[in-house]
Amino acid sequence: xxxxxxxxxxxxxxxxxxxxxxxxxxxxxxxxxxxxxxxxxxxxxxxxxxxxxxxxxxxxxxxxxxxxxxxxxxxxxxxxxxxxxxxxxxxxxxxxxxxxxxxxxxxxxxxxxxxxxxxxxxxxxxxxxxxxxxxxxxxxxxxxxxxxxxxxxxxxxxxxxxxxxxxxxxxxxxxxxxxxxxxxxxxxxxxxxxxxxxxxxxxxxxxxxxxxxxxxxxxxxxxxxxxxxxxxxxxxxxxxxxxxxxxxxxxxxxxxxxxxxxxxxxxxxxxxxxxxxxxxxxxxxxxxxxxxxxxxxxxxxxxxxxxxxxxxxxxxxxxxxxxxxxxxxxxxxxxxxxxxxxxxxxxxxxxxxxxxxxxxxxxxxxxxxxxxxxxxxxxxxxxxxxxxxxxxxxxxxxxxxxxxxxxxxxxxxxxxxxxxxxxxxxxxxxxxxxxxxx
Length: 438
What we know:
Elements: H1 2-21, H2 23-31, H3 35-44, H4 47-54, H5 60-65, H6 69-78, H7 81-90, H8 93-103, E1 105-106, E2 109-110, H9 112-124, H10 129-134, H11 139-146, E3 150-153, H12 157-165, E4 177-179, H13 182-194, H14 196-207, H15 213-226, H16 232-236, H17 247-253, H18 266-276, H19 282-303, H20 312-330, H21 335-345, H22 349-376, H23 383-392, E5 398-400, E6 406-408, H24 412-433
Helix pairs in contact: 1-2, 1-3, 3-4, 4-6, 6-7, 6-8, 9-13, 11-14, 13-14, 18-21, 19-20, 20-22, 22-23, 22-24, 23-24
């Protein structure tokens, strides 16, 4: 199983590389594979490579619809506007609703800006698939999202009731609605042209001013729960800090860790070792990956799905970095011990919380320095020092090293380097102003 996965990844990378020099040959080679073989390849690679492979297929739609919802979401987010719309158009109803459930909400409310931006993409895309895609979006979601953009209607609720009493249906047209912006007017026009009956049902809900927001939120939460997304209160518990009893002794020894350890998150190294290990059962790796996905879902909900421009890729990175820091901390920098810990516990939640506690500690000390520096207007501070303070406060902190390279806090070693640099800046500030910041 592990050898097959390695072979699949190597084959996928080879095809992607070939497509850059000879796309026609890459398409022919990919097309010669069976559907199951193609699906195996696109399922094993990262989101951007998956997108590139999908576009090599003759029957791209069939492959897209066979992907898990999250797999398509990440591929859409990795592409250009045109690539993203093409992939969305090919998706099925569940994939589309998953995308909008993640992308177009800010906490418990529909994000109007994000909804408008994606609708604009759909409107600008002139092809035959656009209709079937839009009509797969749940009507109640369309009504809840579009209603705030409609200032007034030319049809009254009494007129609709009269039609109902006469057992007749009022056939709405876009002219029946006064929209607050041209984009919404174009959207209603498109819906009407696609299916007048669907537009009639949507128009009736808008005129009757049916409050669908709570219902839409409830249905969205139900869909997300089916995909193992927790409730908000459950998700926020992931950010509980833990007591770091041996933090002082380990911080000093962490400077001796091999620089190689800093090139990627420790969790990746652990999973790679388990993948090639003959003594590790496949179900152990699956449990660890399952725990990682649960934590990514918790982080996504706790942070507010797609809020503040964040997306699933970043939240995945955030979860992986915090877990890696926790594993590194608990194993005291010993890779073999980190592997043993992951295998023994399988549930990565405690390691995430250790990593979160370590990063929070750094952010708290750095935040004080940043506010102090800004208040005192310390023009004598080097711009690189100010940048160090800024980067150390990121959810995934990093610094720029002597070679100008970005060093993300993948390990305790790198985190300690950031802490050391922040401490040096603190000493410098104390010298400049004559006292310690507090």
